[in-house]
Write a structure and sequence with these properties.
Helices cover 0% and strands 53% of the residues. With 117 residues, it is mainly beta. Strand 7 and strand 8 (77-82) form a beta hairpin.
Length: 117
Amino acid sequence: QGYLAESGGGLAQPGGSLRLSCAAAIDNFYAYELQWYRQAPGKEREYVAGIKSDFKRGYAYSVVGRFTISRDNAKKEAYLQMNDLQAEDSAVYYCEAHLYTPPREYWGRGTLVTVSG
């Protein structure tokens, strides 16, 4: 049974930066699609960014040009570099990994990001 563990959350000022990490204990990590989601208080969980096994990336419109997703298969880690943070980016950020064949999905417990200043 694998797991994901996020880290790197904290308090940032508007315009500041944070880098989130997602450490995975998953066999064949390289084959998984990895995604970041976030959930603000009172709101639905929403997609933020994703990176496929071939390193193709996708982003929610609200973070394009500010956030960058990456992965290091050797370290079994995923990252989310967040720049120019705004108050509306405040949320719990979750890492998710999934595989289609065989079907597998893992979620981390989340890391809190608060943008205030």
